[in-house]
């Protein structure tokens, strides 16, 4: 490139290309350009976009243009050119991954909802969950598995899940127990909040023996909710370590002291056994020591039971039969 001046032709030094990497030239037009501005400048009025040919003031013009705001913006766009598209692709793939994950989570929640409904149904109907033989060849795999099989006939999404799921089927005893515990926790929290909002409550406690001949205590709470008396089963509690009045008192206070027994317990109901209803050392007397307002009421449901129990003790054959019946579990 050459430029005519008063003292002859001026030649262009190619070293300028090394010093300014944005500088480019056209031999055909015999002009210099700024490559960044040529591509991304918002205005085309600059000589560096229309063509620069003043070699006499080239050094000054190069430095001035390189520091200009227009050139800085164009250079930034040039540096980012191509990278935005890659980032957009990455962002798009990431969004699709999130959407796919969310859809999978939604489907899994729908499956869990079905399993929870099955558990609530069987528990409400007081049906056993597991069967004696839960293998695929069994004619009766238990209520839980059989109910799942029945629902899958009318629910294609549930059927696909049962047929294709290899890691988590939701039918194992471990999953059943974990879901039961989760349901129990949610229900317990609801009951706990209701009791805390109620100004008072009463309880009914009864000691019984399970199928393994282990002693356990069942507890029922009664309180007022929205103007109506409601009754809630609080659970079974192991009492095999001791069934004295002191043991039962400790069991109740350890599990239910969070409900402010001292101020809110106004009634207590037990059977007629001395360990429960005794006025001096029975459970009811111990409860009254911490909650004097808790009136004791004999459980009406136990009247017939106690009459039959007392009557049978006077019959020798009945006493022997019941005695041998109580110890038969040791051998079976």
Automatic annotation (TrEMBL):
It comes from Zophobas morio. This is TTF-type domain-containing protein. InterPro entries: DUF4371, RNaseH-like_sf, Znf_TTF. It comes from the Eukaryota. Residues 8-96 form the TTF-type domain.
């Amino acid at each position: 490139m050459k430029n005519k001046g008063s003292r002859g032709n001026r030649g262009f030094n190619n070293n300028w290309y090394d010093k300014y990497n944005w500088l480019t030239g056209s031999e055909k037009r015999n002009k210099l350009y700024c490559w960044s501005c040529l591509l991304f400048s918002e205005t085309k009025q600059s000589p560096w976009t229309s063509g620069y040919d003043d070699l006499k003031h080239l050094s000054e013009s190069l430095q001035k243009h390189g520091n200009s705001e227009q050139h800085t913006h164009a250079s930034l766009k040039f540096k980012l050119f191509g990278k935005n598209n890659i980032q957009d692709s990455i962002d798009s793939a990431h969004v699709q991954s999130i959407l796919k994950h969310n859809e999978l989570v939604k489907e899994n929640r729908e499956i869990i909802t079905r399993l929870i409904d099955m558990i609530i149904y069987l528990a409400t109907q007081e049906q056993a969950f597991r069967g004696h033989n839960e293998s695929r060849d069994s004619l009766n795999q238990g209520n839980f598995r059989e109910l799942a099989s029945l629902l899958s006939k009318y629910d294609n999404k549930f059927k696909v899940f049962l047929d294709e799921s290899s890691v988590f089927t939701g039918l194992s005893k471990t999953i059943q127990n974990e879901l039961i515990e989760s349901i129990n926790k949610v229900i317990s929290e609801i009951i706990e909040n209701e009791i805390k909002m109620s100004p008072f409550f009463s309880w009914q406690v009864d000691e019984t023996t399970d199928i393994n001949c282990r002693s356990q205590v069942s507890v029922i709470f009664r309180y007022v909710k929205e103007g109506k008396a409601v009754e809630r089963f609080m659970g079974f509690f192991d009492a095999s370590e001791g069934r004295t009045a002191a043991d039962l008192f400790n069991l109740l206070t350890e599990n239910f002291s969070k409900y402010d027994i001292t101020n809110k317990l106004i009634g207590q109901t037990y059977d007629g056994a001395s360990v429960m209803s005794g006025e001096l050392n029975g459970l009811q007397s111990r409860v009254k020591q911490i909650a004097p307002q808790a009136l004791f009421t004999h459980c009406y449901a136990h009247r017939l039971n106690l009459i039959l129990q007392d009557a049978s003790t006077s019959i020798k054959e009945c006493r022997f039969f019941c005695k041998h019946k109580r110890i038969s579990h040791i051998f079976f």
